[in-house]
């Protein structure tokens, strides 16, 4: 199976689907699933926007892609989504409307559930393993949403921080086969001294998945072996516009493809094809 992977998209959900459809067109292959590592930008209305999202959206309306294209049904968006049949599964980042997502999560006991008008965007509940099958392949993903509270934080239960109930689910998991760990934050001290989430480190050391995909920290793509010596740790570049490029092209190395057959037959590549350069902040809606 082929699984597309994105880090932070900050509202550019439709762009992610368009890039997947283009990859299918260029390769003649199918993408079976999209995994997205948080900061999808789930804000159903402007009242819940956080300060950072509001500031960025004032100069770049693509930050409001969920509100403007996915919360309510839009025929033009539905038509574009028909270009590919794959669904997107994401974990929470720190820039989401957590109260809105909490209400939807409380209404279901499923590991994943849809949050959009088209049933194409599905939230993966923290601590609930999700197994996906395509053809003769099966892959199990465990998600950890939100971020860790920094040292010295007085209120470590702010909505953007992992909640106590979620942490308890992680510690109660026990040993089970996990192929992919999908998180927004990284293990503690992995990217920045003092930053990160202790529970992610615990899972990486205990479960030793083949892959760990995360986001949150911005900057260029970083692929390395985790400190557990087994897991390939990958933080792709954010799916946004390269402000150092006069044309405002899509940031390089912001899309990856995981090819998975089984635990012994798999690989991960970063998509860096020439056709990606066609997608800019001015052209992407017309491609």
Give a description of the structure.
With 287 residues, the chain is of the alpha/beta class. The chain is built from 7 helices and 13 strands. The strands form 2 sheets. It has a 7-stranded mixed β-sheet with strand order 4-5-3-2-1-12-13, covered by helices on one side. Strand 1 (2-6), helix 1 and strand 2 (33-36) form a beta-alpha-beta unit. The longest helix has 15 residues, at 13-27. The mean pLDDT is 96.
Strand-pairing-aware structural class: alpha/beta
Rg, please? 18 Å
Q: Please give the number of β-strands.
A: 13
Largest sheet geometry? 7 strands, mixed
- End-to-end Cα distance, whole Å, is 26 Å
How much of the residues is beta strand, in percent? 15-25%
Helical content stands at 10-25%
Query: What overall geometry do the principal axes of the alpha carbons give?
Result: globular
> Which oligomeric form is depicted?
single chain
- SSE ordering: EHEHHHEHEEEEHEHEEEEE
**Strand order in space, largest sheet:** 4-5-3-2-1-12-13
Individual helix count: 7
- The residue ranges in which pLDDT falls below 50 over 5 or more consecutive positions are none
Mean pLDDT: 96
């Amino acid at each position: 199976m082929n699984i597309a992977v994105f880090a932070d998209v900050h509202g550019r959900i439709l762009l992610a689907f368009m890039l997947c459809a283009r990859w299918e067109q260029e390769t003649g292959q199918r993408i079976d699933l999209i995994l997205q590592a948080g900061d999808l930008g789930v804000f159903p209305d402007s009242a819940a926007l956080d300060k950072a999202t509001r500031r960025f959206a004032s100069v770049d309306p693509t930050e409001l892609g969920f509100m403007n294209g996915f919360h309510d049904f839009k025929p033009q968006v539905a038509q574009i989504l028909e270009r590919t049949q794959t669904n997107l599964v994401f974990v929470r980042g720190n820039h989401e409307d957590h109260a809105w997502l909490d209400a939807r999560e409380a209404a279901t006991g499923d590991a994943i559930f849809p949050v959009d008008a088209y049933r194409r965007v599905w939230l993966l509940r923290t601590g609930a393993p999700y197994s996906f099958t395509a053809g003769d392949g099966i892959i199990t993903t465990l998600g950890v949403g939100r971020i860790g509270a920094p040292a010295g934080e007085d209120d470590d239960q702010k909505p953007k921080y992992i909640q106590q109930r979620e942490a308890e689910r992680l510690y109660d998991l026990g040993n089970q086969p996990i192929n992919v760990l999908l998180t927004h934050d990284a293990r503690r001290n992995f990217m920045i001294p003092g930053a990160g989430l202790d529970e992610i480190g615990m899972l990486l050391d205990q479960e030793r998945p083949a892959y760990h995909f995360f986001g949150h920290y911005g900057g260029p793509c970083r692929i390395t072996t985790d400190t557990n010596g087994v897991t390939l740790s990958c933080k792709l570049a954010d799916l946004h516009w390269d402000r150092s490029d006069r044309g405002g092209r899509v940031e390089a190395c912001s899309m990856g493809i995981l090819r998975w057959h089984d635990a012994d037959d798999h690989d991960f590549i970063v998509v860096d094809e020439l056709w990606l350069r066609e997608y800019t902040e001015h052209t992407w809606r017309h491609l």
